[in-house]
Write a structure and sequence with these properties.
It contains one helix and 24 strands. With 288 residues, it is mainly beta. The strands form five sheets. Strands 1, 13, 14, 17, 18, 19, 20, 21 and 22 form a nine-stranded antiparallel β-sheet that branches. It is globular, with a radius of gyration of 18 Å.
């Protein structure tokens, strides 16, 4: 457990708008909720998508995500519960377990699969898509698993437990940093009636997603399975949040790229010409 530095915010962010995710399926029929959809990509730049999945019915997840391609962005998979096997065309393989994080840079192109290695029990977690800047979209594919025990954690004076996946919160650094998009990714557990606060750079777009209980930001209630987009007030310095019941939520923030976003399914580039080239490269076996 890490030792944190307590801060005092002068101008916390407010909730600009609340969204409810869309129930859908992906892969070979995995049921999930698409929380961050295409219509929010510009508002929440550099983030492209957030899926939340969770079920104790194997029929909802057992077929997983067989071989499929990606190019031009990063995927961050955070497993709250369950076991998922990753294999890809760049020669990477790993088993993602409960509490662990998988970070993959698709870069110039990779074909991978994500298949559950369990026949029963709960499978729950999130997959976040983080855009790559134009200069890095054709980078070499990269992949790493971070097991639960290496994810830094700290406990606040009000007994909130904070897992720091990326970026830095109250003086505690996560397992990964990115120089250009500077993502912050926290998993926060707050007891009923307690509050939590952390700094967020005023350059960043940010949102929360509540996956247990409910919280209040200022005078706005954010209920279970809702995403709250945080305002971009110029002088705002962070987030202050109070749990109205025992709550768990993720906080995600990042510095926008302010570049064109052209998406065709699992490919995200900057121009239609690049998308056409991507399709040609995929069809002709030129991915990793």
């Amino acid at each position: 457990m890490k030792t944190s530095i307590q801060i005092t915010l002068k101008q916390p962010r407010s909730i600009e708008r609340i969204f409810e995710g869309i129930a859908t399926s992906d892969g070979a029929g995995v049921k999930l909720t698409r929380v961050l959809t295409g219509k929010l990509q510009q508002r929440l730049d550099p983030f492209l998508m957030l899926d939340a999945f969770g079920s104790d019915n194997p029929d909802d997840y057992i077929a997983g995500f067989p071989d499929h391609p990606h190019r031009g962005f990063e995927t961050v998979t955070y497993m709250l519960s369950g076991l998922m096997r990753h294999r890809d065309s760049a020669g990477h393989e790993g088993l993602l377990g409960s509490g662990g994080v998988q970070w993959m840079v698709a870069g110039r192109g990779v074909i991978h699969s994500e298949i559950p290695e369990q026949k029963d029990g709960v499978m729950e977690g999130f997959q976040l898509w983080l855009n790559l800047p134009a200069q890095n979209k054709m980078a070499e594919p990269w992949y790493r698993d971070y097991p639960s025990e290496v994810i830094p954690e700290y406990v606040t004076q009000e007994n909130a437990t904070v897992r720091v996946i990326a970026g830095s919160s109250n003086g505690v650094d996560g397992v990964l940093k990115r120089e250009i998009t500077e993502p912050l990714y926290l998993d926060v557990h707050v007891p009923a009636g307690a509050s939590f606060e952390t700094a967020i750079p005023n350059t960043h777009n940010a949102f929360i997603y509540v996956y247990r209980g409910g919280v209040r930001v200022g005078d706005v209630q954010v209920d279970l399975r809702r995403m709250g987009v945080l305002s971009n007030t110029p002088d705002a310095d962070g987030l202050r949040i109070t749990a109205t019941k025992d709550a768990r939520f993720i906080l995600v923030a990042g510095k926008p790229l302010n570049e064109p976003i052209v998406q065709y399914g699992p490919f995200v580039m900057n121009t239609q010409t690049e998308i056409h080239q991507t399709l040609d490269d995929f069809r002709n076996g030129r991915f990793a």
